[in-house]
């Protein structure tokens, strides 16, 4: 059985208390979220936010516990704090916003590449129907254009205003 991430009867302090070099009480606010076997989690959070601020944030999370916040959501809140701290360590100015911006730029670039590829495919289809060796019947090109017009929109195309 575990209590606050520690085995009952064990005297091993949580990662936070170990880093802060203090005794880890049974009601330690850090213990449920920063187990002794994951010291890197608290180290980055402590470096970015400071122990006092993390303590205040965890107190707020514990207030939410009294309001019946499910356990997985409490852990998600702490995981979010750890993620932001790690992002701030990698990029002190932008943190996770820099990562989000980079991913958005990749999405924009891929959408542009997709639109260009779709245009090339359409151009190749049009050339196939307009070569002298295969004269299309009058409705074929309109059918191809109509088919392309009804394709699902995969993001902003090059032809939109």
UniProtKB/TrEMBL annotation:
Keyword DNA-binding attributed: no
Domain LOB: 12-121
Entry keyword annotation includes Coiled coil: yes
Species for this entry: Turnera subulata
Name of this protein: LOB domain-containing protein 4
Similarity comment: Belongs to the LOB domain-containing protein family.
PANTHER family: LOB DOMAIN-CONTAINING PROTEIN 3, LOB DOMAIN-CONTAINING PROTEIN 4-RELATED
Entries under PROSITE patterns matching the protein: LOB (PS50891)
């Amino acid at each position: 059985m575990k209590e606050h991430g520690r085995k009952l009867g064990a005297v091993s302090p949580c990662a936070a208390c170990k880093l802060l070099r203090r005794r880890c009480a049974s009601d330690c606010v850090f213990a449920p979220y920063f187990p002794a076997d994951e010291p890197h989690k608290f180290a980055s959070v402590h470096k970015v936010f400071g122990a006092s601020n993390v303590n205040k944030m965890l107190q707020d999370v514990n207030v939410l516990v009294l309001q019946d916040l499910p356990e997985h959501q409490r852990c998600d809140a702490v995981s979010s704090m750890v993620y932001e701290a790690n992002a701030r360590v990698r990029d002190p100015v932008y943190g996770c916003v820099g990562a989000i911006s980079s991913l958005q730029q990749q999405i924009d670039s891929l959408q542009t590449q997709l639109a260009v590829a779709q245009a090339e495919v359409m151009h190749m289809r049009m050339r196939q129907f307009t070569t002298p060796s295969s004269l299309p019947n009058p409705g074929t090109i309109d059918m191809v254009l109509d088919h392309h017009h009804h394709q699902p929109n995969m993001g902003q195309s090059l032809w939109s205003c």
